[in-house]
Amino acid sequence: MAKREDIILKYADKRLPRYTSYPTAPNFSPSVTAADYETWLAALNPDEPISLYLHVPFCRDMCWYCGCNTKATRRTEPVEQYADALLAEIDLIASLLPARMKVSHIHWGGGSPTYLSPARFTQLMDRLRARFDVTKDAEIAIEIDPRHMTPALAETYRAAGVTRASLGVQTFEPRVQAAINRLQDAEMVGGAVDLLRAAGVAGLNFDLIYGLPFQTVDNCRASVREALGFSPDRLSIFGYAHVPHFKPHQKLIREADLPDAASRLAQAIAIAEELETAGYVSIGLDHYAKADDSLAVAHARKRLHRNFQGYTTDNASAILGFGPSAIGWLPQGYVQNTPATAEWERRVLAGETPIARGCALTAQDRFRRDIIETLMCHLEADVAAISAKHGLAAPEPDLSSFLNEGIVAKENSTVRVHEDYRPLVRNVAAAFDAYLPASTAKHSVAV
Fold first, then answer.
1. What is the per-residue pLDDT for 329?
2. Cβ-proximal residues to 150 (8 Å cutoff; 6+ apart), any chain
3. What distance in Å separates the CA atoms of residue 23 and residue 28, rounded to the nearest whole number?
4. How far apart are alpha carbons 265 and 123 in whole angstroms?
5. What is the tens place of the pLDDT at every residue in 61-116?
6. How far apart are CA 249 and CA 65, in angstroms?
7. What is the rounded distance in angstroms from the CA atom of residue 81 to the CA atom of residue 306?
8. pLDDT of 211-233, one tens digit each?
9. Which whole number is the average pLDDT over 405-418?
10. Phi and psi (nearest 5°) for 427?
11. pTM attached to this predicted model
């Protein structure tokens, strides 16, 4: 094995946050309350746009690899009941704002937003537009389960102004699909793509996963080539996180069928090679985009951001989360709704802001978040410049092992991750995490 792979494997099994926030979610606590959130909402600047995230915690079938907050059900009644509560939460949160706020981004996640009926999705989007000033150029994105895409849903998304859809493809290998309980062939995915494009949903993202049971370098390469046949604008490549202690349904995946660390790394490298050969720009840790896509443009101009939905062009001053477990971010800190759907519904319908926990940001948090986000987005950070911006002394983490092995280079005050060691950017970012040394959280492996 080449020296590069040997070096990466030394760090690959380290369990680390994905740094979609800082401080990360395990550092949230109940000390941040609904009253704090209401105060923070009232203090938002009405002249600055915000973003909205809406969580749909239901799927028709449970995919065994899933790490999301969701529940499988074939009954529509819980989904209808949820939609009523979501309408109430939209009204509740809007009433706590200082004005009818401008909205530049809306993201529907899950679970499966495709479980919402056309009538319900339309009703919810109409309510958002009634309570918020959704700008004409707003990005409206939705996560799609290709197995349940219909012409009626595609027409609904067109009428609602959806601009981007993210399809959960994961793999095209039948044996792997069977092992994770997600059967969907290329024809099914292609049908969803055709419906969305015919409806004018211009931006398409494919999610692919490596490290699943029975995956090999060859079938990972084959899945990428199959995906490229649909010419998605972006692809997100995730390593499967096997955490059955946290997600009990993952016990249905036999650990003996999972690839080892060396095989996972080989799969990740093979996928990157296929995408880069096809002309896609590698962005941050795990995203790829066509060179003319807005994500690639933002990356080139160093205007990229990272939040709980991954890499984004969104530069709004706040993100408000709706639905159980949804996380919001405001200038003062992070808040998270209670994850239990029944408890969330009870509190919302009683007129209570359903916050379970959060994190009030300190000056040091903002400073280190800036360093970590810059590293995660651009593989480099000028620590002295960021220090000057925040008026705080620069942290001096021990980067000696990374420097000695060529993983990073340091030029004056700039820390730069070598392109060959992109898979280890989380490891480098973790060196600036003041909370991690004392954390007992069980994160996913680095690669």
1. 96
2. 195
3. 8
4. 45
5. 888 888 777 887 888 899 999 999 999 999 999 999 999 999 999 999 998 999 99
6. 8
7. 32
8. 999 999 999 999 999 999 999 99
9. 96
10. -60, -40
11. 0.95
**Stretch 238-251: mean pLDDT:** 86
Q: The tokens of 210 are what? A: 């490596």
Report whether 148 contacts 126 (CB < 8 A). no
Q: For residue 165, give the H/E element and its range.
A: strand 164-170
Torsion from C-alpha of 447, 227, 234, 366, nearest 10 degrees = -20
Residue 116 amino acid letter: L
Tell me how long the chain is. Answer: 447
57 contacts 323 by C-beta, under 8 angstroms? yes
CA 206/CA 225 separation, integer angstroms: 12
Select from 363, 357, 364 the least CA-distant residue to 321. Answer: 357
The answer to whether 274 and 224 are in contact (CB under 8 A) is yes
Give pLDDT, residue 2. 58
Q: How far apart are CA 410 and CA 79, in angstroms?
A: 52
pLDDT at 1: 46
Beta bridge partners of 237: 208
Quick one: the chain helix, strand, coil %, rounded to 5?
Answer: 40, 20, 35
